[in-house]
Amino acid sequence: MSRVCGMLVWTGGTEYFHLSALTWVMFVAIWVVTVGPFVIYLTGAHNRIPQVPWTTPPLCLNCSAAALYLVTAVVDTLSVNQSTRGRHNYNCWAASAFFAFLTTLFYAGSTYLSYCAGKTTGQ
Fold it and tell me: If you write DSSP's letter for every residue of the chain in order, what string do you get?
């Protein structure tokens, strides 16, 4: 669900390339939060390296994604004020801010669940 809401943040018509903070967050969100785990699972590294406690990477990943989307939500919310002056589409910025906060909550929940999973396996 967090991936779907995250997609709605970035495809909601926001012109993130106008704000350098959002450009950086989007770059990290795509490469670190999406491509990183994809490469790990594509190569099968999680099966080949049993010494790594594989409950820790999802915890770190979800925590960093929650932090990044919180920054995105704050920047989007501050950008809504700029859009009222006619520079950007108000509805798109408002929807993007809403979904950024919702995505932050989903990733925070995933962080908590990853923490609980790590605690129950003893890693």
Answer: -HHHHHHHHHHSS--GGGSHHHHHHHHHIIIIIIIHHHHHHHHTHHHH-TTS-TTHHHHHHHHHHHHHHHHHHHHHHHHHHHHTTTSS-HHHHHHHHHHHHHHHHHHHHHHHHHHHHHHHHT-
User: pTM, whole model, 2 decimals?
Assistant: 0.74
d(CA 20, CA 4): 23
Q: How far apart are CA 66 and CA 94, in angstroms?
A: 19
Between the alpha carbon of residue 99 and those of residues 15, 48, 88, 106, the distances in Å are 15, 37, 18, 10
Q: How is residue 70 written in tokens?
A: 């919180």
Residue with tokens 């925590």: 63
Q: What is the pLDDT of residues 29-44, one digit of tens each?
A: 666 677 777 788 788 8
